[in-house]
Amino acid sequence: MATIEMVPIRPHPGRTESEMQLTARDPEDTSRSDVNAFEDVPPNGGYGWVCTVCSFMIITHTWGVTGAWGVILSHYTSHATFPGASRIEYAFIGGLIISVALLIGPIVSMSQKVLGTRITLLIGTAFEFVGLFGAAYATEIWHLFLTQGMCCGLGIGFLYITTISALPAWFSTRRSLALGLAGSGAGIGGIVYNLASGHAIETVGVQMTYKILAFCALGANLVSSLLMKSRDKPQITRKERTVDCHDLARPEILLMMLWGIATEFGYIALWYSLPSYAVSIGLSAQQGAVAGAILNLGLTIGRPIVGYVSDVFGRITVSTIVTAVCGLLCLAIWIPANSYAVLLLFALTAGSVCGNFWGTITPVVAEVVGLNRLSTTFTLICLVLVIPTTFAEPIALGLVKGSSYLHTQVFVGCMFFLASFGLWMLRSLKLYEVEKKAADERQELTNYGASTFPGFVHWIGLRKMFIYARV
């Protein structure tokens, strides 16, 4: 087989972004001109960097503020604030925040198309403020389900899904870097609000802490919402769908869903379980909180680095590797981590790679289905992630036997390995499609018009799975 050269071509409605940027062609074929241009080239910077800062601030004051729930949870359980409330109920509140945020994906997508990015973000800003401010006056556990769980979840959904869908259109070759920088806000917010909330609870009480969080989120989200812009005009047509269930028949989308489901089971279980694990091995609650903060520090450092490397070496390829590395760290370091120093080492290294999914999912989706279908496909993926985000922590707690977290640790590690396997298959599928297109363009067809290129099942093998290519 001749060497495959990748050259830019004109965009086509039926092609994905990766096919618009890379197409297979025999270098000896000179029948076509190599001088082609994109009709719609993202600015790859400019005001896009302002939108990146806005996305960073929004993520800091959504997922970052949500990270403070662990500190507040510790206060509630240690002081028996809500008599009769179990650990499982508290775990479901944390999962409810994330699951509600993902469940409203179709509503957020519709709002963004009809009302525009700015109005949708302002709606989310209002929901999150009401949720945090209302939680300050909770006197029963179901009050927290409505405020901290439902209302904050709605606010985060409107804010996060909107900003993460609007940002990729501003970039091409720097897309993963921009998403990584924006996503690092979850880590920085987690560090700041974990430490600040713990200090505030001790000095002014949990009620005033909630009010401080509410007004901090209101100010940052309000300014960011007014500055954030989308390159697409708000519109909806008859042919356009918020969610296309036909995508469930496409293997590449199913593989991305497998990546997301497995990653979320592992990521959320790790995120919420690490402080409790620290206490189980004899460390103090404060040391457990520090371990959680170091995990968030890893997120802050890792997401921009992974994003930059993804833009250079391929978004699917790098995501496959770092996801597998996270699974290896869980099994090789977390399980034998019985000292404070080793636990902090694990928290920093695992934190740098465990949040890879949310930092690279939209660039990978754009790579697979194209920018024009990014919002629809991302919304569908968010819907299927409701199950793992809701039940990940209850499952992790259920696997704890006495003071032993071994089953939980193995579960988390295996989930990251399963996620990596899904990405590995997705990478092989994309390589197959590129090489098959090359074969078709060289007109390697039989007299009956059937392609001589082998099917995917016969084509895939260890050599193909380990082939070096930027995907």
TrEMBL record:
Where found in the cell?
Answer: Membrane
Q: Does the record bear Cell inner membrane in its keywords?
A: no
Q: Name one GO molecular function term.
A: transmembrane transporter activity
**Pfam families listed in its UniProt record:** MFS_1
Sorted UniProt keywords: Membrane, Transmembrane, Transmembrane helix
Q: Where mainly found? A: membrane
Tell me what topology the record assigns in the membrane: Multi-pass membrane protein
Protein family membership: Belongs to the major facilitator superfamily. Monocarboxylate porter (TC 2.A.1.13) family.
Q: Which PANTHER family match?
A: MONOCARBOXYLATE TRANSPORTER, TRANSPORTER MCH2-RELATED
What this protein is called in its record is: Major facilitator superfamily (MFS) profile domain-containing protein
